[in-house]
Amino acid sequence: MFHLFQKIPTISTQKLAERLNQSIVLLDVRTPSEYRGGHITQAINHPLNKIDSYQGKKKEVYVICQSGMRSKQAAKRLKQMGYEAINIQGGMNRWQGSTRGGK
């Protein structure tokens, strides 16, 4: 049965930092210019407006944006597409780890 208000699992940026040691898929759903301005090294840029075209091999996907709003929308859509999407609470605003600029 389809639930309109599906619960999206959420983790903190600290938990994300711990999980980056493993081989996880991290999608950054911000715009390409925001992404170039600074992103988590392992993050793959896949803007929210193109989320429907996402075709990842792994079922579990971590999703981040600037504040956590767009990533939540993207996570909901990914869940509808059959992925186990985990939203990163607070997004890049709360990220304490290192970032890199450029592509």
Automatic annotation (TrEMBL):
One short Pfam family name for this protein?
Answer: Rhodanese
As given in the record, the signal peptide range reads none
Gene3D superfamilies on file: Rhodanese-like domain (3.40.250.10)
Q: Give all residue intervals belonging to the Rhodanese domain.
A: 20-100
* Name used for this protein in its record: Rhodanese family protein
